[in-house]
Amino acid sequence: MIHAFIKKGSFQDSVSLMIISRKLSEAPEVEEISVMMGTPANKSLLDVTGFWHDIFNEATPNDICVSIKAESDDPAIIETISSALEEALADIANGQKSGNKLTTVRSWRTAKQKSPNANMLLISIAGEYAAELADTGLEDGCNVMLFSDNVSIADEKALKEKAAANGLIVMGPDCGTANIAGAPLAFANIAPKGSIGIVGASGTGIQEITSQIVLQRQGVSHAIGLGGRDLSEQIGGISAITAINMLAADPQTRVIAFVSKPPAPAVREKIIAEMKRHNKR
Questions:
Q1: Could you name the Gene Ontology cellular component terms for this entry (predicted)?
Q2: Buried b (16+ CB within 10 A) or exposed e, 65-87
Q3: What's phi and psi for 259, nearest 5 deg?
């Protein structure tokens, strides 16, 4: 049986929600729990994975959808899991109540003032707000990693064109992994530094190549994610070209590896031509 409820107006990134889903699924009263934001894509995923409940029709992208699979039809399960969710969210808000706490700010401008030399902005907020923040980051001379999804094709193209015109890059939207100068970002493998640069429009592909490189006792200079739509006909590989050029200019990078799902044919030819243009293996 599916029990479900919505927590209104409480945006969390997908990494936090995956951890919460796993933690809540340990409750003895349930079989499995799925916790997702109420975006259209996530609603479709809840449907195809058997977690759908009609209450989710009321959810917005800023609401948390909680779907509970359980044998019991006792409605008290919802109250139990709701309380556990509140505790998990409180732990996140308190930085897990242990370890070193990062500086907390409430705006990009304040963050930039506190770290004026920063040149990378990682965005994980609701997609409807992500493009505007990414544009602000580009205006401030920062490269952007958009972990957020639900950014329109038009906004993605405009952001990537603006970045390329200013010698910057936009990774994403829906870019789930990167490794920049040894710093793993989002879902990323920790890898030794080395001479192999990776460009990828496939997060799992980047992680697999990184793992194989490490198994061969080699290292990674940078792993640059693109987002799943960069190699589409509409976007035209804008960030892919930028990433290749960045790695080609990087003295630490001797080899460039490129991985993606099947790209648009014309974009594929463009990428191959760009790879051949540089003196890298």
A1: cytosol; succinate-CoA ligase complex (ADP-forming)
A2: bbbbebeeeeeebeebbeebbee
A3: -140, 140
User: How big, in percent rounded to 5, are the helix, strand and coil portions of the chain?
Assistant: 40, 20, 40
277 pLDDT above the threshold of 70: yes
Do both 92 and 119 map to the same domain?
Answer: no
Is the pLDDT reported for residue 237 higher than 80? Answer: yes
The answer to whether residue 115 sits within a structural domain is yes
- Is residue 242 within 8 Å of residue 209, measured between CB atoms? no
- What's the pTM? 0.75
Nearest to residue 131, comparing CAs of 177, 162, 167? Answer: 162
Instruction: Give residue 56's identity as a one-letter amino acid code.
Output: F
> Above 90 in pLDDT, residue 13?
no
Instruction: Specify which residues 36 forms β-bridges with.
Output: 65
Q: How far apart are CA 176 and CA 186, in angstroms?
A: 6
Name the token pair of 63: 């609401």
pLDDT tens by residue, 145-158: 999 988 999 999 99
Q: What is the pLDDT of residues 175-200, one digit of tens each?
A: 999 999 999 998 888 899 999 999 99
123 and 88 in a single domain? The answer is no
Q: What's residue 1's pLDDT?
A: 92
Residue pair 186/175 in contact by the 8 Å Cβ criterion: yes
